[in-house]
Amino acid sequence: MKSDRRLVRKGSLEKLFEVLKGDNRQVYAPFSRNGRTTYRKTEKFSDIATDYIQTTQSSKEVSFPRTEKILDYSKNEDGMSVKGIEPDQIPQIMLWGIRPCDALGIGELSSIFNWDYKDEIYNNRLSKVTVLGFSCGKADEYCFCTSVGGNPGNTDGSDILFTQLGENGDYLAEILTEKGEKVIALSPELFETAGNIEKEKFLADVPVKFSHKEIFGKLEKFFESDEWVEQSLRCIGCGACAYVCPTCACFDIQDDSHGKLGSRVRCWDSCGFSLFTLHTSGHNPRNVQSARWRQRIMHKFSYMPERLSVYGCTGCGRCSRACPADMNILEHLISIKEAVL
Amino acid sequence: MTNNLYMPYQMKVERITYEAPGVKTFMLRFVNEEDQNKFDFRAGQFGEYSVYGVGESTFCIASSPTRKGYIECTFRQTGKVTNALSDCEEGSIIGFRGPYGNTFPLNEWKGKSLLFIAGGIALPPMRCVIWNALDLRENFKDITIIYGARSTKDLVYKHELQDWGSRPDVKLITTVDPGGESPDWKGEVGFVPTIVEKVAPSSMDTIAIVCGPPVMIKYTFPVLAKLGFSDENIFTTLENRMKCGFGKCGRCNVGKVYVCKDGPVFTLAQLNKLPDEY
Amino acid sequence: MDELKKRAKELLEAGTVKVVIGYENGTADKTRALFAQEAKDADKLIFDSRCIMNLATYLTKAEVKGKGRMAITATLPVMRAIIQLTSEFQVNDNNLLVLGITPESKMIEFKDIEEVESFVHKYTIEIEAKYSEKLEKLDKMTPSERWSFWIEELSPCFKCYACRAACPMCYCHKCAVESNQPQWIPVPSHDLGNLEWHMMRAIHLAGRCIDCDACYNACPLGIPLNLLTKRMLIDAKEHFGGYQPSIKADHLMSTYKPEDKDNFIM
User: Fold this and answer.
1) Residues of A in contact with C188 (CB under 8 A)
2) Residue A290's closest chain C neighbor by CA?
3) pTM of this prediction?
4) Is the CB of B80 inside 8 Å of chain C's CB atoms?
5) C155 to each of A173, B156, C148, C186, how far by Cα in Å?
6) Residue A283 β-bridge partners
7) Which of A201, B162, B270, C124 is most buried, most CB within 10 Å of its CB?
8) Contact B4 A285 (CB under 8 A)
9) pLDDT truncated to tens, each residue of chain C (266 aa)?
10) Domain boundaries, chain C
11) Fold (topology level) of B9-100
């Protein structure tokens, strides 16, 4: 559908927030703690963090929680009772303040969960999320959304995209989907008619650092390169990059047992961990960190584009900001681009 | 939820067969008849078997799709889940979800001879194909099975080996590693690749199916090449670590190929194109 | 640090070492590990107050060790870690040359590990005042307040194990959290499991932690994990006579002494 453009006064945002909270809905918004900004269920408008370029964690938890029940079981005298998770147990979520790169990431994550087998647990959660994106007026050296198909005012994945018209300015609201229209219907008076607004003027400048061909084309022949070892010497093999990433979907399945009751859960895992691919026999196909680092880059920039026709990266830069060893994905991609085969 | 991919079928352990030290075969029946009627699989596919409260483990379906009404699996006690499975008794309820993965193309093999080469605990993924082929015996020419294990006690499906050995339409060669023979052992003594070279089966119109530990596979492929088998006519299965079974959990890929979806069955020609990451 | 650059260059040119582990400028005003393998790489070496990552964590990493004989830029916490790792047979003295950086930012090249130890022993491990205050505050809380404090702090933990990966003492190929027979610690991230994981890690580090704050600095969520390890440090001192890493010393927590207190047994 063609987007409907409205103007929302700066002072109306709080009213909108209050309206969104009602009626069996939860608002998830950026919240700062210990110097980090992450999304969490927010009750007070004043709790919402505003001074951040990018949140530490992505918003993927709303559709792909770090730990998620996939079934409950109970052992009883008659045997075993096993129950799935019912969709009505999943709350409606208003996802407030996500960046266009995160909104783009929703599509990339969905492509994994719907590749051939449709993951209804994921889809059910996502169907209950309304995405209220906020364009970027600022960017930093870690941002590279424009190199992977996004941009600071990209509408893909958002139900409504807000763009602030200058510092302390009002907001342009682009209503992009039916879910977005439902939000307007909650409080139509907050959405005024917008005149001619040149949105691009208010967006951050994020220069393009590489083209699809320069990376995708290169990686096809790059598997055996020594570059992987040199890049990954610094990598300490934690899962921080994967866990802050909006599109990393690797998971483990574990049973959480409490006597006769318990659940089976799906929980985040990372290809960076040394035991991730370890066979029971002791054989490990990716037995060194360079092989695991290669997997991370190849998966996002070669395998996913080839198999799912999307990148596994939105250029949000979170992995680089979060990395305790300063593995900077953009820097490494550029060195792949520049490497001589 | 209508379609929870992770929801297992409830299976009753109907019969437990002790195969070798630490190795058991379970015959599993669907608790719900409806599940049973819906269920279908083909040779080579695998599933996730689970003990509630402990977890899931991946292995193949070891019975033939021609035998309806039940499935069988054979596993060795090695990890948390297989230990818990091993503690199950006849009548226990376990979980099973599947089938996943691709299959051995038995239809394309019609009219050809089949050569099965297996080592140790890798006979189960092949047993499914062997019984499938034997149940449709008229579709194939010669059927040869070369099976080796570390020692006589490590041979699995001992009763079936006897059965196959006594059939006039199957040529069975069993072998144990040097030093693994018992005083009454009548089979061969030697490593599988050596025995394959010695038996020298014809490659004429023949499909070779090879399953075994990596080292056995590594040394068997060159022997087959010497015997004239083309890479397209050599099949094997990969057993990478996996959790979901359907292309999402991110563990089993070898380059861009997902063992759970594109495999586990591959020809040597396909394997040659993959990076060395399995 | 021209002295450091010069020496690193000489060592690499002479082939005395195959790699010099040091710091270089990273992205956005961060510093990071540099693995200089050719003399020209040594020009990138830096040292300043931003260089806080504990480089000793790389000494047990296969692909780094595989390069051959190593030299390492070692601040006091790095030296302490090297000594502790040596005493746990994780670092081979013959394979390592220590280019020490004194608290006054002077370079000292040590002849052997004994020299490193004598140098390190000139300094005791002191808990910084800002942390002592926080720990005192925690001490004064009631058990239920303390419980809430830790649940609140640890519940955001998503178990990326950056704390473990950055810690020079967490070198186990298979960590207790990954042992599943029995399953000591639940794998998924949830309040109780997170608490169990961090308590278990802190206890495994008691009497071994060299107080470098690497765990806290590495945590992408800024969880004050070093409050746990510092608590352990204080308790080890109080109950078992203090801790100074030494290649000769008995391991504080794994060596029984008749005079050890047993008042923790109910």
Assistant:
1) 66-67, 252, 254, 256, 265, 267
2) C63
3) 0.94
4) yes
5) 35, 48, 10, 14
6) none
7) B270
8) no
9) 789 999 999 999 999 999 999 999 999 999 999 999 999 999 999 999 999 999 999 999 999 999 999 999 999 999 999 999 999 999 988 899 999 999 999 999 999 999 999 999 999 998 999 999 999 999 999 999 999 999 999 999 999 999 999 999 999 989 998 888 888 888 999 998 999 999 999 999 988 999 999 999 999 999 999 999 999 999 888 888 777 888 887 777 777 778 777 776 65
10) 2-120, 129-240
11) Elongation Factor Tu (Ef-tu); domain 3 (2.40.30)
